[in-house]
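User: Please fill in residues for this 402-position structure.
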């Protein structure tokens, strides 16, 4: 099952996506998501200029060998660009293997470990009232878990407040926009927001919140402690996690469940967080963490330490990544929850997929492989448009985590 063609498709149906498409000599095709929000062309080049020439002629069946060949063979290991590229190759090879076997990928991963994949949607509002209204709307659609974000009084821009009801796109066309940030104002507001959601809508659904890397460990510890009575499903990215041991301080002060990992790209970024049980959910994604093969390794380590998965699933991860995540989620023993930020109709038209939402769960479908087809002709109508994630500065002008 030799690879005959390896090509990269860059398109922008509502936002930029980078997709790797592999084709075997027998005509089987496989897709992998290589989208790195704000740095898309770096991964496209890494694939086109350095990886694709090595794939042509390789046996598509040798998934693990190809993973090791690209990881160890690059010499320069890890990092978001490298691991996103390897992730795309890995995902495409699992897609091909499923098609060759005539099975959906989850069957190759050990079959169903659950009936469906519990997902959470993103509710947001410019203020508390709007955020509560958006949350109620998600609940009325059958969601059993909702992440809630809202504008912070006194700040022009706040993380996670969507421009549309069911769609949120943080990247801006052109150069990075600059957002003002005040941790003090946020810490005064966040408990009121989340307590208001509970008092208005009750406790009979999973409530999640994302602090998006913006607090110091002691600030994070205080917020986690303050929110214990809100009974959150998780508090996400409370503090930057490059210093994994800083979560010892947070963990010492609060029982609120913690989730990190969407910016991680390998097991080495999270092995201490997992082995010391400093977190409850690991958020790594198929696309950014070396594909299904490496994400399974992270999940296996996490399973030893009572840590569950909570894969990242934002709009900057394409339907190819979402589909791959669902096959992984359906089969992994220590599944927690799957993020599900819906894509635009334009995106769904370019990436026709089998997965579907029903009663709070997603199902990857029974098509062989991942169940996603890329309409290349339609994709060509949406050329790449430079876009960047915002840059955040505190009120005195200091650059802060966005
Ligand atoms: C966010 C992401 O979904 C989340 O939890 O943290 O939307 C994140 O902001 C984007 O993926 C960045 O590209
Ligand atoms: Mg997040």
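Assistant: Residues filled in for all 402 positions:
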């Amino acid at each position: 099952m030799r690879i005959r063609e390896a090509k990269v498709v860059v398109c922008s149906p509502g936002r930029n996506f980078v997709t790797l498409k592999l084709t075997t000599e027998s005509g089987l095709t496989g897709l992998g998501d290589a989208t790195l929000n704000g740095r898309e062309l770096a991964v496209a080049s890494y694939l086109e200029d350095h990886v694709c020439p090595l794939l042509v002629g390789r046996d598509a069946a040798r998934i693990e060998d190809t993973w090791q060949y690209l990881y160890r063979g690059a010499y320069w290991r890890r990092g978001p660009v490298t691991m996103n590229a390897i992730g795309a190759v890995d995902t495409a090879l699992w897609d091909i293997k499923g098609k060759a076997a005539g099975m959906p990928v989850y069957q190759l991963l050990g079959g169903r470990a659950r009936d469906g994949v519990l997902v959470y949607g993103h509710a947001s509002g410019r203020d508390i009232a709007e955020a509560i209204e958006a949350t109620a709307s998600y609940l009325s659609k059958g969601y059993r878990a909702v992440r809630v974000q809202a504008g912070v009084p006194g700040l022009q821009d706040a993380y996670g407040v969507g421009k549309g009801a069911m769609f949120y796109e943080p990247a801006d066309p052109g150069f990075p926009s600059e957002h003002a940030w005040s941790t003090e104002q946020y810490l005064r507001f966040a408990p009121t927001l989340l307590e208001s959601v509970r008092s208005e809508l009750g406790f009979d659904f999973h409530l999640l919140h994302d602090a998006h890397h913006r607090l110091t460990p002691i600030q994070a510890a205080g917020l986690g402690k303050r929110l214990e009575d809100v009974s959150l499903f998780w508090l996400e990215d409370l503090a930057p996690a490059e210093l994994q041991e800083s979560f010892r301080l947070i963990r010492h002060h609060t029982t609120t469940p913690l989730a990190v990992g969407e910016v991680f790209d390998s097991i080495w970024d999270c092995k201490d967080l997992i082995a010391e049980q400093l977190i409850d959910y690991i958020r790594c994604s198929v696309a950014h963490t070396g594909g299904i093969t490496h994400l399974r390794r992270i999940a296996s380590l996490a399973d030893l330490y009572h840590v569950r998965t909570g894969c990242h699933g934002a709009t900057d991860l394409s339907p190819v990544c979402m589909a791959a995540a669902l096959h992984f989620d359906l089969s992994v023993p220590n599944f927690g929850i799957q993020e599900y930020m819906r894509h635009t109709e334009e995106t769904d038209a370019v990436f026709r997929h089998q997965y579907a939402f029903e009663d709070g769960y997603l199902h990857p479908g029974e098509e062989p492989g991942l169940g996603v087809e890329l309409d290349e002709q339609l994709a060509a109508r949406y050329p790449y448009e430079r876009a960047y994630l915002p840059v955040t500065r505190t009120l005195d002008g200091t650059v802060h985590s966005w």
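For context: The chain is about 35% helix and 20% strand.
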